[in-house]
Design a protein that fits this description.
2 domains; binds 3-isopropylmalic acid; binds nicotinamide-adenine-dinucleotide; binds manganese (II) ion; 12 strands
């Protein structure tokens, strides 16, 4: 177990429900710190609409510098109707930060809890046991190509380099080796040149470096259908930036709510960025009703992937599983708890898990 130490965490609450859910994640991390003897120092910085309001810039340079200097970054969400149509957009801040930190691999795990299978709009027998990991390429594609706009029309350019595809493919194959050994690479190779390159490069990396992993290719339109029809058949889903954005929101409903899904954005080295996959949810912001689980599970991914604290991450995940099983949920999952009460329930579950563990050790010694 790593020795206890102090970790500097850059916190970017952002907009809408962002501040509510990052606060929940910080509350849980502080409790984990108490139990395991770590200190998490939180440093808040501006991003998105909040940064536009304060500075005119959705990504102040001071935020980038602080994130690069931190051990890891926790982010809430950016965006909202207030900033639509403005000269700068909140979303530019998040995209710029991902690029500045070199975060090319976005991991979005989904496990459907048996106790929540009935909350899914799909039949229980389709969703029960689903265990997926989406690997979304995060710093390339149409998100970062040149855009133009004239009175007659507009363009968005989609570009991928071989190196950009190779590095995210390697990351996905490595993860598949630790899981059930299957990668489904998703593209639109029947239409797009970037997708034809994607398929070629993924096929080569597979043959040269990971021949024992099972690889299949799927076209994104039919994949959107298969993910609803037979989601249990998939393990690691590897795809480009925009397809990954769309497919991950689609699969989030298999588990009952988009509010449950965390994500980890990782680069070759340096700090990772951890955020729920949902947005700023302006329709429910400021009401203490947002589900904090996606942000809390993102904190668990931060402990595991950036800080190497596996036991600590496991404690959070076990506590979340316990409260979901007990039906202690926010309204999106049919429960009656607010954001803060749901967070407190998770904190209580962490305490209970630790108490039980300590008790068992004493019993064993006796
Ligand atoms: P959204 O994810 O914010 O909301 C979609 C729906 O899911 C809404 O009905 C919302 O109430 C619900 N929802 C989302 N999170 C929830 C939670 N934690 N608990 C309960 N319900 C939750 O998507 P949107 O409405 O399309 O986008 C709103 C804004 O967020 C836009 O400006 C968009 O650009 C931005 N956005 C930001 C991020 C991010 O910062 N990573 C991600 C997605 C969207
Ligand atoms: C996400 C969001 C972002 C994206 C937006 C806010 C730029 O939808 O993280 O999924 O499209 O990547
Ligand atoms: Mn999205």
């Amino acid at each position: 177990m790593p020795a206890p130490r102090t970790y500097d965490i850059a916190v970017l609450p952002g907009d809408g429900v962002g501040p509510e859910v990052t606060q929940a994640a910080q509350t849980v991390l502080a409790v984990i710190g108490d139990f395991f003897g770590h200190r998490f120092r939180f440093h808040e910085h501006l991003i998105g609409g909040a940064a536009i309001d304060a500075t005119g810039d959705p990504l102040p340079q001071s935020t980038v510098d602080s994130c690069l200097a931190a051990d890891a970054v926790l982010l809430g969400a950016v965006g909202g109707p207030r900033w639509e149509g403005g000269k700068r957009r909140p979303e530019e801040g998040l995209l710029g930060l991902r690029k500045a930190m070199g975060l090319f691999a976005n991991l979005r795990p989904l496990q459907v809890s048996p106790v929540l299978a009935h909350r899914s709009p799909l039949k229980r027998e389709i969703v029960e046991g689903v265990d997926l990991m989406v690997f979304r390429e995060l710093t390339g594609g149409i998100y970062f190509g040149e855009r133009t706009r004239t009175a007659e029309g507009a363009t968005d350019r989609c570009e991928y380099t071989v190196v950009e595809i190779e590095r995210v493919a390697r990351a996905a194959f490595k993860t598949a080796q630790q899981r059930r050994g299957k990668v489904t690479s998703v593209d639109k190779a029947n239409v797009m040149e970037t997708s034809r390159l994607w398929r070629e490069v993924v096929t080569r990396i597979h043959a040269e470096e990971f021949p024992r992993v099972e690889l299949e290719h799927a076209l994104v339109d039919s994949m959107a259908m298969h993910l609803i029809r037979k989601p249990r058949e998939y393990d690691v889903i590897l795809t480009e930036n925009m397809f990954g954005d769309i497919l991950s929101d689609e699969i989030s409903v298999l588990g009952g709510s988009i509010g449950l899904l965390p994500s980890a954005s990782l680069g070759e080295s340096g700090p990772g960025l951890f955020e729920p996959i949902h947005g700023s949810a302006p329709d429910i912001a400021g009401k203490d009703i947002a589900n904090p689980v996606g942000a809390i599970l993102s904190a668990a991914l931060m402990l595991r992937h950036s800080l190497g604290l596996d036991d600590e991450a496991g404690s959070i995940e076990a506590a979340v599983a316990a409260v979901l099983s007990a039906g202690q949920t926010t309204a999106d999952l049919g429960g009656t708890l607010g954001t803060r009460a749901a967070t407190d329930a998770i904190v209580d579950a962490i305490r209970a898990i630790h108490w039980a563990a300590a008790h068992r050790i004493q019993m064993h010694w006796a």
